[in-house]
Design goal:
The protein is an alpha+beta fold. The strands form three sheets. Strands 1, 4, 5, 6, 7, 8, 10 and 11 form an eight-stranded antiparallel sheet that branches. Helix 2 packs antiparallel against helix 3 and helix 3 crosses helix 4. The protein starts with a helix and ends with a helix.
Length: 214
C-alpha cells in the first residue's frame, strides 16, 4: 500500500514539474489565405496561412507582436491558449496569474480581428492597433490617426456582448518567434426581448415620475 501511494505521489510530482505539452505550428505563407498579400508601414499585415499539427487553421493566424520577427515558411512548438475558457498560462503578454488588464488586451485584439473582414481597406491600421496594444513603443504606422481610432474603438468594447469561444492564442515555446492569434471575437447583439423589457421598465418609470410631478 505504501509503495502504491509513493508511486502515485511521484507521478503527480513529475506531472507538476514538467510543463504542459506543446503543439507544432506550421506557418505556410504570407497573407495569401484570406486577403492576399498586404503590406502596410513596411510590414506584412493580416492573417497568415497556418496549420496546427495536421489541422488547417481556418482563417489563418495573425501576429500579436511587431517587435519579434518570424520567418515564413516556418514551424515551431507553441502553447495553445484561449479566451473562453480563459487560458493564458503561457501567454507572452500576460502574467501567471494574469491581471484583468492583460486579459482585456487579448480581448481587444480579438475584437479588432473581427473587424478585418468588414474593413478590408483598413487591415493595416487595425493590425498596427493590435500591435500597439501589446507594444506601444514599437508599433507606429504611417496613418497614426486611423490606428488611434481603432485603438480607441477597441478600448470601448463591452466584453459582455462578445463571444470569444473561437479565439485561440499560439505562444512559442522559444523566444525567437512571434505570438499569434486565430479566430475573432463576435459581437452578440442584445436580444430583442431584453430590449423590450428594458423599454417597458423605462416607460413605467416615466409614468411614475409624471404622476409624482403632476
Amino acid at each position: 500500500m505504501r509503495r502504491m501511494l509513493f508511486a502515485l505521489c511521484l507521478t503527480l510530482l513529475l506531472g507538476a514539474v514538467h510543463p504542459a505539452s506543446a503543439d507544432l505550428l506550421n506557418i505556410s505563407d504570407i497573407n495569401s489565405l484570406v486577403y492576399g498579400t498586404t503590406k502596410y508601414g513596411g510590414e506584412y499585415v493580416g492573417p497568415i496561412g497556418a496549420d496546427l499539427g495536421s489541422s488547417i487553421i481556418t482563417g489563418g493566424i495573425t501576429c500579436l507582436d511587431v517587435n519579434t520577427p518570424t520567418k515564413v515558411p516556418n514551424h515551431f512548438d507553441v502553447y495553445v491558449g484561449s479566451l473562453d475558457p480563459v487560458v493564458l498560462t503561457h501567454a507572452k503578454f500576460a502574467g501567471n496569474p494574469y491581471t484583468p488588464e492583460q486579459l482585456f488586451n487579448y480581448q481587444k485584439a480579438a475584437a479588432l480581428l473581427g473587424q478585418m473582414p468588414t474593413h478590408t481597406d483598413e487591415i493595416g491600421p487595425i493590425q498596427f492597433a493590435i500591435w500597439r496594444i501589446f507594444d506601444p513603443d514599437h508599433a507606429s504606422g504611417p496613418e497614426p490617426a486611423i490606428e488611434a481610432f481603432w485603438l480607441s474603438w477597441a478600448a470601448g468594447i463591452d466584453v459582455n456582448h462578445y463571444d470569444f469561444s473561437s479565439v485561440l492564442i499560439y505562444t512559442p515555446t522559444n523566444t525567437i518567434n512571434q505570438e499569434f492569434m486565430s479566430g475573432a471575437a463576435c459581437h452578440v447583439p442584445v436580444p430583442a426581448s431584453a430590449f423590450l423589457l428594458g423599454s417597458g421598465l423605462l416607460g413605467l418609470s416615466l409614468v411614475g415620475w409624471r404622476r409624482k410631478t403632476g
